[in-house]
Design a protein that fits this description.
This protein is about 35% helix and about 25% strand. With about 280 residues, the chain is of the alpha+beta class. It folds into two domains: about 5-120, no CATH class; about 150-275, Restriction Endonuclease (3-Layer(aba) Sandwich). Strands 1, 2, 3, 4 and 5 form a five-stranded antiparallel beta sheet that branches. Strands 6-7-8-9-10 form a five-stranded mixed beta sheet, with helices on both faces.
Length: about 280
């Protein structure tokens, strides 16, 4: 990568440390900062398997804290980071992170800040999460436990990048303006064309089919506020008519007019989407 295209970013690893005396921890998230672009984002564990891994390492882990931390952290970063102009976060980054460090529970701590050179913020956030938080590569394929939402999302991101539409997509679309204030849920991708807003979200049929209910509720809430929308759910496999869970998801999505796109058809989906985004 040419040096002039790269810029300096910094990151911290978020650690769960239930026993400060023993100084034992497990990495549960990443916060990446790009002061030049005014961007600061967090990515924390969210999959049931990721939570279960922490429980295996620390059987007395506070599961409620782990599940709620992502949403609470996002709200804090937006509220205390402020917004100054388009895409610009206000405030001093070091002061904000120090204040956040002071307010976090004693069992959640930051690693020392580290710097890196990168070109694409989202690519670096994915890489850092794979390297520092996801299960070791020897245990899974591509750095993620196969068939989880994180694994589907990584495959989807790669397809969008190869079809040259990733840069045209909005990542991590907050939905609280359409549902309820404080709703931490985010849709994986959003896009716009000819007055239509589209959304793409990964749903694991095998590991977390309950995510389908969250997506259906979100789609219904957004459609009540936006007249022209389309929703696409990306699944790891096609729907099986012999599987009762799959049938439930299919009926739910049909009621909410959510298109089902299994990964074996996502290349075609991206190719069809590309001319609409140009």
């Amino acid at each position: 990568m040419p040096e002039e295209k790269r810029r300096t970013m910094s990151y911290r690893v978020l650690r769960y440390t239930p026993n400060l005396v023993r100084d034992e921890w497990v990495n549960i998230g990443i916060i990446l900062e790009d002061d030049r672009a005014g961007r600061r984002e967090a990515r924390l564990i969210e999959e049931p398997g990721e939570i279960a891994r922490v429980r295996r390492l620390h059987p007395q882990a506070d599961e409620d804290l782990l599940r709620n931390l992502s949403g609470n952290l996002e709200i804090y970063l937006r509220r205390d980071g402020g917004v100054q102009g388009e895409g610009k976060q206000g405030g001093n980054g070091d002061q904000l992170m120090q204040k956040l460090d002071d307010t976090l529970s004693n069992v959640v701590q930051f690693s020392p800040q580290r710097g890196l050179l990168g070109e694409d913020f989202d690519v670096e956030l994915d890489r850092l999460y794979r390297d520092h938080v996801a299960l070791p590569r020897g245990a899974v394929r591509g750095g993620f436990l196969e068939n989880t939402r994180a694994w589907i999302r990584a495959r989807l991101s790669d397809v969008f990048r190869r079809h040259r539409i990733l840069a045209k997509m909005e990542k991590g679309v907050r939905v609280e303006e359409f549902t309820q204030p404080g709703d931490p849920f985010r849709l994986d991708y959003g896009y716009r064309y000819n007055g239509t807003r589209g959304f793409v979200h990964a749903v694991s049929l095998g590991r977390d089919p309950a995510q389908a209910k969250v997506l259906a509720y979100t789609a219904e809430s957004i459609r009540a506020r936006l007249p022209k929308t389309e929703f696409n759910a990306i699944t790891e496999i096609p729907i099986s008519l012999d599987n009762p869970r799959h049938q439930f998801v299919a009926r739910l999505f049909e009621e909410q007019k959510i298109s089902l796109v299994p990964l074996n058809r996502v290349e075609r989906f991206a190719e069809d989407l590309r001319p609409r985004l140009n």
